[in-house]
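User: My instructor asked us to take a sequence, write out its structure as tokens, and then describe one feature of it. I'm not sure where to start. Here is the sequence I was given:
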Amino acid sequence: MAVRLAAEKELPLPLGGGGESSQPRNGVIGARTASLGTFLRRNPLVLIGGTVLLVWIVVSAAAPLLAPYGPLTQKIVERLQPPSAAHPFGTDPLGRDILSRVLFGGRISLPVGFLVVSVSLAIGGLIGAMAGFSAGWLDSLLMRFTDMVMAFPIIILAMTIAAALGPGLDHTMIALVAVSWPRYARVTRGLVLSVKENEYVHASRAMGASEPHILTRVVLPNCLAPAIVMATLDLGNAILTFSGLSFLGLGSPPPAPEWGAMVAAGVQSFDQWWVGVFPGLAILTLVMACNFIGDGVRDALDPRLRRSV
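Assistant: Let's start with the prediction itself. The structure tokens for your sequence are:
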């Protein structure tokens, strides 16, 4: 019997053995694809939001190719013309093509929204993680400062900071980050306080892992899902707040083709409805798409809200 077992151990592996190991991998990929398809069928708003956001990204990136005119090209003799074949969205008080300006406006609003959310998540997440993991006087100091910032209305504080810094795209982004990070700090602190009491964290500490290693490699990876959900939901809010500041003259300085500033120009021309309606529709569709995606990501990552498939 021992001789037979030794002989079997020396037998070469079959040439098709590699294919057997690929079958479970293909099965996992197929199962995940089927699960994603089921999720999208049960959440059609996620599919709609993702499609709209993807269209805006592609259109904004290809704006120089799609726009019939330059965003700053002025033709005073064609000012305030209604939508027509030559100008599908009409023209503004300076004779600029509104369709071209709306397309180029996405090249401002989309990067600003993604950058503001990313920087706010990084700053707020760092502050919240330090406060929740260290506790003690550092926790009290950071959270009292966070509470002080959150005590001000977001739009009022953003207006104050942007007005103090002066008009400009970079100043507006600083103002938006300054009012956005406290929410991420609060959420991250609560998550860290909950996760750091789990048994696997105590096991890592008992095995001799350093505190920075435990925080970055053990605690924070288990806090990512709720933070990603919040960032996704906050993307539309960041774009909307940025448009609001531009509407008040605190965003990109003229003649930049920014949607909020274009809506503000339409306020002065109520009879020419197309001046403000089309930029407003651009803001509406993009913000709604981000909200639809955020709701879907929340349903997918939050076990309490996840639908059974």
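For the description part of your assignment, you could build on this observation: Confidence is low (pLDDT under 50) at residues 1-21. Try explaining in your own words what that tells you about the chain.
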